[in-house]
Specification:
about 350 residues; mainly beta; Tachylectin-2, Chain A; 5-stranded antiparallel beta sheet; 4-stranded antiparallel beta sheet; 2 helices; 26 strands; about 55% strand
Length: about 350
C-alpha cells in the first residue's frame, strides 16, 4: 500500500477540462503539474499535450509557427500519399526533411481555492517562444526565491530537449531567461533558498553509452550559469529503479534535511515516486533514501491512459506539516495525494 494517500476525487483534472488552444487540436493530456501555494489560491502549471483531429486522406500534426513576436499554434496538413511524407511511428511524422510530433505540449494554468476543485485557464501560459522550444514546452517547476517566482521547464526542439528558465510576478505573463542546461538535460529543480551563498539545483543529464540516467547536483552564482556538477543519486538494481531516476519538485526544507520526492522508471517502464533526504548544509550529500515507493500505479487512471503505469510529480505544496503531492497519471490526468512530512521522513 502506498504511503501517499490519494484524494478520493482523483483525477482532479482530465483532458476534457481543458479547452484546445487551436480549432482542430485535441487535448490528449493534462498532467505533470508544477504547483504553487499563493495562500488563497493553489496554482498548477499543467503540461497540456495536444494532437490534431484527423481527416480522411490527410495526415495532420500540431506545429509552431514562429513570428516576429513569438510563436503561435498551427497545423501541418499533408496528403496521406504525398511522397515526401514518412510515418515514423506513433510519435510523429517526417516531412520534407523535418520531424513533426504527433502531440505538442504547452504549459497551462489551473486555479483552485481549495487545492482540489480546479478551473483551467482558457489559453496557454507558456507556449513555444523561440527555436529552442519549437516542438513544445513541458513539465514546469516553480520555486519562490527571495520573493520572485522562477520557473524551469523542458524546451523541446530538433536539437532535442533542454531546460529553460523564466520569471513570473503574477502568473499572467513571463519573462524568458533562456536555456540554463543544454541538451540533453531535464528534471531541473532549484532549491528555494541559497546554501552557502549560492543557488543550488538538482538536474538529470541523459546518459549515452555508459551508466543510467541519474540525479545530479549543481550550483550557481546567478541562476543562469551552473557548475560544480556531481552525481548524487543513481538508480538501484531493483525492479522499481533499474532503468533510470530523476528529480521532482523543488526540495523542501525540514529540520532533518532537504526532502525530495523523485521518480523512478523500472521494469516494464513502470514509474513510481520515492523519497530521499539531503544534508541541509551540503545538499550534495544523501542522508537517507527510501526503500519502498511512496506511490506507484494502482488505480485505473494510473494504470491505463495515454502512457499507462506512470505516476510522475514535479509539484508539491507544504501546509501545516503535510505535503500535497500533485502528480501526473498515465501521461493523461492530474491527481493529488497527501502525507505528513514526518511520516515520509520516517519511512526513509
Amino acid at each position: 500500500m502506498s504511503l501517499l494517500k490519494r484524494y478520493s476525487g482523483n483525477p482532479v483534472i482530465s483532458p476534457r477540462d481543458v479547452r484546445p488552444s487551436l480549432e482542430g487540436y485535441v487535448v490528449q493530456g493534462a498532467f505533470n503539474p508544477g504547483a504553487v501555494d499563493l495562500g488563497t489560491e493553489t496554482v498548477l502549471l499543467l503540461r497540456v499535450a495536444e494532437g490534431c483531429e484527423q481527416k480522411p486522406g490527410k495526415v495532420r500534426a500540431p506545429m509552431c509557427r514562429l513570428g516576429a513576436v513569438g510563436a503561435c499554434p498551427a497545423i501541418l496538413e499533408v496528403d496521406a500519399d504525398d511522397p515526401d511524407l514518412k510515418l515514423k511511428d506513433t510519435r510523429g511524422v517526417w516531412y520534407r526533411g523535418r520531424d513533426y510530433l504527433s502531440t505538442m505540449s504547452h504549459i497551462r494554468i489551473a486555479r483552485s481555492p481549495d487545492g482540489y476543485d480546479f478551473r483551467v485557464d482558457p489559453s496557454p501560459f507558456i507556449f513555444a517562444g523561440n527555436e529552442s522550444e519549437i516542438y513544445g514546452v513541458e513539465d514546469a517547476r516553480a520555486v519562490n526565491i527571495e520573493n520572485r517566482w522562477y520557473l524551469t521547464y523542458t524546451a523541446v526542439s530538433p536539437d532535442s530537449w533542454a531546460t529553460a528558465l523564466a520569471i513570473t510576478e503574477d502568473f499572467q505573463s513571463i519573462r524568458r531567461l533562456g536555456l540554463i542546461f543544454h541538451p540533453e538535460n531535464k528534471d531541473v529543480a532549484i532549491f528555494p533558498e541559497r546554501v552557502g551563498g549560492k543557488f543550488m539545483a538538482l538536474h538529470r543529464p541523459n546518459n549515452s553509452g555508459f551508466g543510467r540516467a541519474s540525479i545530479w547536483f549543481a550550483e550557481s552564482p546567478d541562476l543562469l550559469h551552473w557548475g560544480n556538477h556531481r552525481c548524487i543519486l543513481r538508480p538501484r538494481d531493483t525492479r522499481w529503479e533499474c532503468m533510470k531516476i530523476g528529480g521532482g519538485a523543488p526540495p523542501i526544507k525540514t529540520p532533518e534535511g532537504w526532502l525530495i520526492i523523485y521518480h523512478a522508471k523500472g521494469e516494464d517502464s513502470l514509474y513510481s515516486l520515492w523519497g530521499a533526504l539531503l544534508d541541509l548544509e551540503e545538499p550534495w550529500k544523501v542522508v537517507r533514501r527510501g526503500r519502498e515507493p511512496l506511490l506507484y500505479p494502482e488505480e485505473p487512471y494510473e494504470v491505463e491512459g495515454f502512457f499507462g503505469n506512470v505516476v510522475f510529480s514535479n509539484g508539491v505544496i507544504e501546509r501545516n506539516g503535510r505535503l500535497r503531492v500533485y502528480y501526473g497519471a498515465a501521461d493523461q490526468y492530474t491527481c493529488v495525494a497527501e502525507a505528513s512530512i514526518s511520516d515520509i521522513i520516517g519511512s526513509l
